[in-house]
Specification:
Blueprint (H helix, E strand, L loop, with lengths): L1 E4 L2 E5 L4 E3 L2 E5 L8 E10 L3 E10 L2 E9 L13 E4 L4 E3 L1
Antiparallel strand pairs: 1-2, 1-9, 3-4, 4-8, 5-6, 6-7, 7-8
């Protein structure tokens, strides 16, 4: 699987996890040079508190386009150290 935004591969892995229609990529498969910190957090009742990162590629920014669970709840432990994308990030098999 590949995650692409602004014509750039931002993550690539054969070890993604699909949950609720989203593909989660192992954190080591993410090209961290395209990510910037965000102060945004949301809470999922069964996964826990999500943290976000923004993307910066080719001079364009995609605010809070990536999320992850640094300390997932017990039911979502398999998502620890995985990152998911939205906001126009294309996922290609």
């Amino acid at each position: 699987m590949k995650a692409i935004w602004n014509n750039q591969i931002i993550a690539e892995s054969n070890e993604t996890i699909q949950v609720e229609g989203n593909y989660y990529f192992p954190s080591q498969s993410v090209n961290k040079k395209y990510f910037t910190n965000s102060t945004t957090h949301t809470t999922c009742p069964w996964k826990g508190v999500a943290s976000y990162r923004s993307l910066k590629v080719g001079g364009k920014e995609n605010k809070d386009a990536a999320w992850f669970y640094p300390n997932p709840k017990y039911a979502a432990q398999k998502l620890k150290d995985y990152v998911a994308f939205w906001k126009g990030v294309e996922i290609i098999p």
